[in-house]
């Protein structure tokens, strides 16, 4: 991604600076079906732009019959849809890889589920008259910066087929309130099932193009690569993953959990961008048992699970892993890639049962 080479060393000053600007969801927030806005994960590539909503417009241009310039009020007056959607950063788990790709040092907390409201993108594209020879739709944000030596606005594209899916929204509300500045106000793209980099924030323009888009955030960043010179494959849908709400209470520094012997309820969430989650297994010291799946929250939202653990005194490592309907299952061995993308290695939670 144009940064430093992967390292085996301690966190760099640059990584600590990024970690202070961005935030993960505290794992205890897994107790909420819908993540409170202030606990939802957040990644801002450059600066949060200053936007005057009264003069802001969404420009729709390029390979269209009828270019549009829409105000926020016009978008809000269109037919709306509200739905719960789980969003995860593509770099979630990066800091667990060895050697560690140097970027935002996520462990497992870069996820959240919000109730998003907006108007379907498809209807807006139809009204603009997107021509049939359009290859992709490019989405441009107001955030601007330098990455990998390239100065650019944050831009990503979708194929026309994906952009026309009914669940893809131009979102203006999160959890029943207008978007907050850090979450893309006044308008962002929302692409359910895909990693968060796809849902462009601070959206200002939509451009239909006849050739594949080759902007930095599409062609260079967010790729599965074995090495820097490998062109790799573009990151798209979220890989299957389960997380648990760590039981008991933590040691301040190590976050090791302390619990009392006996029956300990353990719960968590599981999701996949490509298919429904159909199984979650709970592991104690590498011995696995099926957990109970709860009713789905929505097609594009995480699913709750629970397990009654009979905790015996001593030190243990708890784990959880999910399987989706397509047969995808979380790996027990990490799969390394140069940018640290899509690492869905199973979560591990060290626990001491009884007084330390």
Task: Give a nutshell description of this structure.
It contains five helices and 22 strands. With 356 residues, the chain is mainly β.
What overall form do the CA principal axes indicate?
Answer: globular
Q: Name the helix and strand elements from N-terminus to C-terminus, one letter apiece.
A: HEEHEEHEEHEEEEHEEEEEEEEEEEE
CATH class (first level) name of the largest domain: Alpha Beta
Q: How are strands sequenced across the largest beta sheet?
A: 14-15-22-21-17-18
Ordered list of secondary-structure elements with their pairings:
Blueprint: H1 13-21, E1 58-62, E2 68-70, H2 72-76, E3 81-88, E4 111-120, H3 121-128, E5 136-147, E6 150-159, H4 160-163, E7 169-174, E8 177-178, E9 188-190, E10 203-209, H5 216-219, E11 223-224, E12 233-234, E13 241-244, E14 249-250, E15 257-259, E16 262-271, E17 277-284, E18 287-290, E19 292-296, E20 303-311, E21 314-324, E22 347-353
Parallel strand pairs: 1-10, 15-22
Antiparallel strand pairs: 1-2, 3-4, 4-7, 5-6, 5-10, 7-8, 7-9, 11-12, 13-16, 14-15, 16-20, 17-18, 17-21, 19-20, 21-22
């Amino acid at each position: 991604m144009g940064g430093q080479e992967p390292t085996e060393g301690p966190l760099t000053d640059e990584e600590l600076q990024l970690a202070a600007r961005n935030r993960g969801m505290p794992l205890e927030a897994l107790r909420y079906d819908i993540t409170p806005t202030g606990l939802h994960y957040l990644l801002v590539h450059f600066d949060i732009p200053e936007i005057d909503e009264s003069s802001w417009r969404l420009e729709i241009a390029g390979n269209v019959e009828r270019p549009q310039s829409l105000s926020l009020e016009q978008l809000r007056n269109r037919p709306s849809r509200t739905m719960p959607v789980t969003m995860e950063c593509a770099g979630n788990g990066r800091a667990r890889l060895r050697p560690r790709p140097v970027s935002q040092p996520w462990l497992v907390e870069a996820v959240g589920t919000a109730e998003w409201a907006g108007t379907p993108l498809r209807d807006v594209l139809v009204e603009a008259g997107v021509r049939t020879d359009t290859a992709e739709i490019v989405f441009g944000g107001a955030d601007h910066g330098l990455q990998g030596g390239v100065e650019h606005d944050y831009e990503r594209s979708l194929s026309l087929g994906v952009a026309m899916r009914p669940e893809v929204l131009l979102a203006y509300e999160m959890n029943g309130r207008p978007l907050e500045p850090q979450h893309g106000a006044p308008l962002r793209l929302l692409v359910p099932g895909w990693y968060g980099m796809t849902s462009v924030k601070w959206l200002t323009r939509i451009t239909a193009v006849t050739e594949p888009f080759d902007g930095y955030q599409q062609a260079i960043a967010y790729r599965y690569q074995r090495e820097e010179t490998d062109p790799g494959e573009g990151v798209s849908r979220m890989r299957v993953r389960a997380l648990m709400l760590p039981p008991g209470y933590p040691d301040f520094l190590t976050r090791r959990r302390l619990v009392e012997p006996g029956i300990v309820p353990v719960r968590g969430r599981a999701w996949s961008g490509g298919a429904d989650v159909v199984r979650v297994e709970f592991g104690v010291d590498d011995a696995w048992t099926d957990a109970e799946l709860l009713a789905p929250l929505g097609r594009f939202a995480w699913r709750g699970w629970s397990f009654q653990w009979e905790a015996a005194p001593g030190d243990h490592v708890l784990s959880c892993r999910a399987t989706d309907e397509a047969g995808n299952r979380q790996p027990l061995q990490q799969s390394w890639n140069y940018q640290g993308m899509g690492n869905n290695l199973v979560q591990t939670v060290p626990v001491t049962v009884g007084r330390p």
